[in-house]
Known about the structure:
- Helix content is 23%, strand content 34%.
- By secondary structure, it is of the alpha+beta class.
- It folds into 4 domains: 4-155, Beta Barrel (Cathepsin D, subunit A, domain 1), CATH 2.40.70; 162-246, Rossmann fold; 275-338, Dna Ligase, domain 1; 341-447, ATP-grasp fold, B domain (D-amino Acid Aminotransferase, Chain A, domain 1), CATH 3.30.470.20.
- The strands form 6 sheets. The chain has a 9-stranded mixed β-sheet with strand order 2-3-10-4-9-8-7-6-5. It has a 5-stranded antiparallel β-sheet with strand order 25-24-23-26-27, with helices on both faces.
- Helix 4 runs antiparallel to helix 5 (250-257).
- The longest helix is centred in the middle third of the chain and has 14 residues, at 229-242.
- The radius of gyration is 28 Å and the shape is elongated.
Amino acid sequence: xxxxxxxxxxxxxxxxxxxxxxxxxxxxxxxxxxxxxxxxxxxxxxxxxxxxxxxxxxxxxxxxxxxxxxxxxxxxxxxxxxxxxxxxxxxxxxxxxxxxxxxxxxxxxxxxxxxxxxxxxxxxxxxxxxxxxxxxxxxxxxxxxxxxxxxxxxxxxxxxxxxxxxxxxxxxxxxxxxxxxxxxxxxxxxxxxxxxxxxxxxxxxxxxxxxxxxxxxxxxxxxxxxxxxxxxxxxxxxxxxxxxxxxxxxxxxxxxxxxxxxxxxxxxxxxxxxxxxxxxxxxxxxxxxxxxxxxxxxxxxxxxxxxxxxxxxxxxxxxxxxxxxxxxxxxxxxxxxxxxxxxxxxxxxxxxxxxxxxxxxxxxxxxxxxxxxxxxxxxxxxxxxxxxxxxxxxxxxxxxxxxxxxxxxxxxxxxxxxxxxxxxxxxxxxxxxxxxxxxxxxxxxxxxxxxxxxxxxxxx
Length: 460
């Protein structure tokens, strides 16, 4: 390795941490190097712990934050130049200077009061660095401009992420989210949504669970059950307030769960759906049926899930009886046109990040017009048309959902959206298509949590 000469201050890079330019003070009196870090948290398995932290690489620019993670190699007591001892986390990463790079140890500490965001100690200088203590920046100049460049996202390294799955169930979907995430080197924690609570204040909004403040997650994957939609979306709103990336936002989940609201959103976006009517007064039963068309009709509870609370009324008299029964229970419901040509089949399109990543055809059990797999239906892979693909993407976009199961009916007048599911299961569609759907979801999460270029400050 070619010998380099350092002055008392140099530009360096820590590429594995996503820090392409940082000014470092050279201090031969210190053994280990130090990096300014905030929000330091240990995560991952105890046998292979990692540490997550944030760095403000430009002095005075607290609006620019780079989130980093690295394997934790030690915890060490370090005494500073003023005699104060501090217990610090120690990581190992590569230092890049000029066209050379080599591994160094770095302790993490708060250097907010220091003019240099990094200190280079003896261990980092090794035997191939000579020091010229009266000069500075003898190596190639770097620039903070790199943090304002769109290339920052493109060159950012893959790092271990800390991810929360909000779920109350130990089912296939939850287990797959954990398995795939950990295979990729991430730390995935399953959090029971109902055991979370919130501290709501302007200065430090937090989420707690079982008496402890939850850490700063890189991403949250909501799997909120229909029975706890209101509370679950409140928890997600709190994560959104903190600034955590949530695969599905609270507003989209809330709107998709309210079937009346969902159909109003679809109608406002001119997205095809079965003709639908809603009314509160029992005097409107006949007119309500007339708005939808002739029997057979579908009568559907607004809170229905997995095909429960969905009734096929084959005659007008049967429809009136079902409507009267639902009203007697003071239940909210919709009346919909029955798409006969669908013949008990629908298409489930799994949309992730604005793309249909898989599709399957679901067929109801013998004698059942509902195609839900939970009710004994079957599924097989299907090739969808361009119109069906575009309809599914538009429907997911209408609710702002990063992950959605869009159910379509094939009608004579084109695809019609039956439902937009904000917590679709993965088992049926992965089994039917043989695709790694969860892996595609992690592709999107990893892309979304990469650093964003910072805005340049304009001088007055």
